[in-house]
Specification:
Elements (H helix, E strand, L loop, with lengths): L13 E6 L1 E2 L13 H4 L11 E5 L5 H5 L5 E3 L9 E6 L7 H4 L1 H15 L3 E2 L8 E3 L5 E2 L3 E16 L3 E15 L5 H10 L5 H7 L9 H11 L33 E4 L5 E4 L9 E5 L7 E5 L12 E4 L5 E4 L3 H4 L12
Parallel strand pairs: 5-9
Antiparallel strand pairs: 1-5, 1-7, 2-6, 3-4, 3-8, 9-10, 11-12, 13-14, 15-16
Helix pairs in contact: 5-6
């Protein structure tokens, strides 16, 4: 990879470029036309995604954002056409996608988009190309993957024995599955070349179609820009008990949050059972963050299942993890009034 700040140490082994201008006429891409001084002074690329937000703290302040922090939000799809294209490589450094990732980046950025299509200019406040986690939040991105045919030369002599060297490599640049970076990362994960956690981190930048609102809310929450309501008094370890009901109830009437003696979570019809009584325990600070814990005297509770947890996919369970010590915000309930 080139020695560029925005492309150093890609956390989840994925990179992306985004362009906002087209400066090459009559190539079938974008709306640049001739004569250039009349029909290409402010031309747009072919749009393939929607821009959600730019976190200016992610990029190098001297070259991209020109500031240390701040965000730009684009909630109503009024940013104009943009085009994003990326790549990803697995966790095996010996695979072709990892060893030739610099070639892939050059192909995507300099050849396929600047030379062939005339796409230029970065999204303001962000690098033109960078590690995915340093790039703007968008719905999706196109994707190119590497296929390499390598020819090795083997030699032998009495002094050194066998010696192998790479003679040449023939590289193909192909569209990923469905020409989609998110789907390509799914394929890496399914092949054991990326983890579930890395796939989830990719979704913090590639949020999915029509999910800009959810993505920007998560960004606001992470950066603590979201408006928080005052604490409501749930501060005592053995303070008030509360029932937790599905908003609006359910069609079957089974509406109250309940934990079983085996540590599973489910809904039941009433809140009179002691395992349907909950403490909302502050984890400290001013951000309205709490542990949800069952009534301490409930019979049959497992000693190692004393906290409510959730994973990134929306599954809930009882756990022994105390969020006051781990700080993993993904399974800390937040009190929000509706």
């Amino acid at each position: 990879m080139p020695n560029v700040t925005s492309l150093e140490n890609c956390e989840i082994r994925a990179a992306m470029c985004c362009w906002v201008s087209d400066r090459q006429a009559d190539d079938g891409n974008g709306n640049c036309r001739t004569p250039y001084d009349e029909k290409c002074t402010n031309a747009d690329p072919s749009a393939n995604t929607e821009l959600c937000a730019v976190d200016h703290s992610k990029a190098d302040a001297t070259s991209s954002s020109h500031g240390d922090d701040g965000i730009s939000l684009f909630p109503i799809k009024n940013e104009g056409p943009i085009h994003c294209h990326g790549m990803a490589w697995g966790n095996d450094d010996m695979e072709a996608d990892a060893r030739y990732r610099g070639n892939n980046l050059f192909y995507i950025s300099m050849y396929d988009h600047m030379y062939k299509r005339g796409y230029v200019r970065n999204i303001p406040g962000a690098p033109m190309c960078g590690c995915v986690e340093k790039m703007p939040m968008v719905e999706r991105a196109d994707c190119t993957e590497i296929k390499a045919l390598e020819f090795w030369k083997f030699s032998w002599n009495v002094q050194n024995g066998f010696y192998a060297s790479l003679d040449r490599a023939e590289i193909e640049f192909n569209a990923c599955r469905d020409n989609d970076l998110g789907r390509h990362y799914d394929d890496l994960k399914d092949s054991g070349l990326a983890t579930d956690e890395e796939r989830w981190l990719l979704q913090r930048t590639l949020v999915g179609q029509n999910r800009c609102n959810q993505g920007t809310k998560a960004m606001m929450f992470d950066k603590r820009y979201e408006e928080f309501y005052p604490n409501v008094g749930f501060n005592e370890e053995n303070g008030n008990l509360h029932s937790i009901k599905a908003y609006g109830g359910t069609n079957s009437g089974i509406s109250y949050f309940h934990t079983t003696g085996g540590g599973s979570l489910q809904l039941q019809a009433t809140a009179t059972d002691e395992k349907s009584k909950w403490r909302i325990v502050s984890i400290g600070g001013s951000n309205n963050m709490y542990n949800t814990r069952p009534f301490p005297g409930a019979s049959g509770l497992l000693i190692d299942k004393q906290f409510v947890g959730a994973d990134h996919w929306g599954n809930t369970f009882m756990t022994n993890v105390d969020q006051r010590t781990t700080g993993k915000h993904n399974i800390i309930p937040q009190i929000v009034y509706i």
